[in-house]
Design a protein that fits this description.
The complex is a heterodimer of chains A (65) and B (494). Chain A is an alpha+beta fold. In chain A, 23% of the residues lie in helices and 17% in strands. Chain A has a two-stranded parallel ribbon with strand order 1-2. Classes of the chains: A alpha+beta (65), B alpha/beta (494).
Chain lengths: 65, 494
């Protein structure tokens, strides 16, 4: 489709990938997708305010808490 | 009066409002008008999906302060825009959505691409104009453009498709630009009195500072008080990061420095903020909102005053004009907080430094789930050599490499939300998020719209792989129409 793409899986290359992509954007008019491979760790629950301790009244759902 | 067709009146009214760029997908419903966009100096940027077009109009409006215009084919082309218009509504963006509709002789008969197009936008627009008669094309079009600015939000212009045709005698209205003021004298006097007696004031800088082009006025008020300045949630571009009084954003994954400082406040000036409920929730285990502090709230929409938080003084005014009026009232006075200026500056500096050190050292999450996920990634590495990065480390590295004058849009998702503390700006109109509507698929099209408005600024979109997949097709819009952007996709396979 005409875009550039780069995959990053080394922390030392993250900043340079952004710098290179911005240079390509500003000087050559190129669109770049930087794919950064990340772990599945999560920040603090997003809607902690909306979460409460689960209650199940029906036996079929008892284990799903 | 000049003899025109309604199509000409519609296009000429857009020209009178300075429209040069529109986003959408062409369709028979408005082709008669579209065919004269080019000679009128209006570019229609064709997109992949109309939701993208409306996000682009939003991004365009937020960067430029001008109207963002989106247009599409009646029926599905219009219903596809609903989510993006809702996002623009919560961003207070002056977007005009033009919705050509089934012709008047077919309405209600169940024809092709027919839908009742006003109710679907009712909740997310400030004004809905409907061309009930082609002689009113210029009048109602002009009103939609005026209200988008004066009411600070999207408006809809609904045009039954047969109303583009005919002969009318018309005068194109001049745009009506609202001259906003500082607010009522009584509320300003009361606010100045509270500030004069405050021992530990804190300034909360909100979206109204960005949208009202009031950064200089906000800085002047902050400097007079010598107080910490915190950004309201997702308005990280409402105070310059390089200013010594900048403490960072509140809200989800925001700055602990800001939270600890505002918790000590006896008076808070919320400048241009509706104090939205989500943006002040407890965070990092801290319920930091100063429940006993006196709150001075300034908002250009009086309906926001005291809506969410209990306030002491509500000022219905423009953020910049109100800040200037307050500085004038404090001029020549000795404030209660003047005696502790150096001491408060030291407190502020200590919190800022502590938070930056914590961010440097906070390389990964430490809860049980995250530690399991890190162990899983380590096992994969041992097995196949793949390498998975900690999101926080990535966000810090991106922050360090961020170019000057960058515009950044963020999508919805965990890593994008964690990005809050790593996104800081020196220039207003730099940071775009889907705000309270929180829809996925936002970041890429919005930054394309922003880049169309400001081609001289670097444009960067952050998205997780899930949200990215919802609108990645707009890459074709960027490449086909020479609107280059940079997309950072956090691929965590979930």
């Amino acid at each position: 489709m005409g875009a550039e793409a780069v995959r990053i899986d080394n922390i030392d290359n993250v900043g340079q990938a952004l710098t290179d992509a911005i240079k390509a954007q500003m000087e050559e008019g190129k669109t770049t997708v930087i794919e950064i491979m990340c772990t599945k760790e999560l920040g603090d629950p997003f809607r902690k305010d909306a979460l409460s301790t689960p209650v199940r009244h029906l036996d079929k759902y008892k284990d799903y808490v | 009066m000049t003899r025109m067709t309604p199509s000409e009146a519609f296009v000429e009214t857009m020209v009178a409002n300075g429209v040069t760029t529109t986003f959408g997908i062409m369709g028979s419903a408005f082709m008669d008008a579209m065919d004269i966009f080019a000679p009128a100096g209006i570019r229609l940027i064709p997109v992949v999906h109309e939701q993208g077009a409306a996000h682009m109009a939003d991004g365009y409006a937020r960067v430029s302060g001008k109207h963002g215009v989106v247009i599409g084919q009646n029926g599905p082309g219009i219903s596809n825009c609903v989510t993006a218009i809702a996002a623009a509504f919560w961003a207070h963006s002056p977007v005009v959505i033009v919705t050509p509709e089934t012709g008047t002789m077919g309405i209600g008969l169940g024809g092709f691409q027919e839908a009742n197009q006003l109710p679907m936008f009712q909740e997310f627009t400030k004004y809905q104009g409907h061309i009930n008669n082609e002689h009113r094309m210029a009048e109602i079009t002009a009103r939609c453009f005026d209200r988008a600015q004066s009411e600070m939000g999207p408006t809809q212009l609904n045009i039954p498709r047969d109303r583009f045709y005919g002969d009318i005698d018309v005068e194109i209205p001049e745009p009506m630009v609202l001259d906003r003021g500082a607010g009522g004298e009584k509320s300003l006097d009361e606010a100045a009195e509270l500030l004069a007696n405050a021992k530990f004031p804190v300034l909360l800088s909100g979206g109204g500072v960005v949208q009202g082009n009031a950064m200089a006025e906000c800085i002047a008020l902050a400097e007079r008080l010598g107080c910490p300045v915190v950004n309201s949630y997702l308005h990280n571009d409402s105070f310059p990061k390089s200013h010594p009084q900048w403490c960072g954003p509140l809200g989800y994954q925001g700055s602990k420095a800001s939270m600890k400082l505002i918790a000590q406040a006896d008076v808070v000036v919320a400048l241009g903020s509706r104090l939205g409920p989500f943006g002040t929730l407890p965070q990092h285990g801290m319920d930091y909102w100063p429940a006993d502090a006196k709150i001075i709230q300034v908002d250009a929409d009086h309906k926001m005053l005291g809506l969410v938080k209990k306030i002491s003084v509500g000022i219905h005014g423009d953020a910049g004009a109100a800040a200037t009026a307050l500085v004038r009232r404090l001029d020549g006075k000795v404030l209660a907080c003047d005696a502790t200026r150096d001491e408060r500056a030291a407190t502020m500096k200590a919190e800022q430094d502590a938070w930056e050190t914590e961010l440097d050292e906070w390389t990964h999450e430490k809860d049980d789930f995250s530690l399991d996920m890190i162990a899983e990634a380590d096992a994969e590495r041992a097995e196949d050599g793949s390498n998975w990065l900690h999101p926080r480390q990535v966000l810090r590295e991106l922050e360090k490499a961020m170019p000057a004058r960058a515009m950044v849009s963020t999508d919805i998702g965990n890593i994008n939300s964690v990005a809050n503390s790593y996104l800081r700006f020196d220039e207003p109109r730099s940071f775009f998020a889907p705000m309270s509507f929180g829809n996925c698929g936002y970041a890429l099209p919005t930054i394309i719209g922003a880049k169309a408005a400001a081609p001289d600024r670097p444009a960067i979109a952050y998205a997780g792989d899930g949200a990215w997949a919802m609108s990645m097709s707009e890459l074709m819009t960027a490449t086909r129409h020479n609107i280059p952007v940079t997309a950072v996709v956090f691929h965590n396979r979930q």
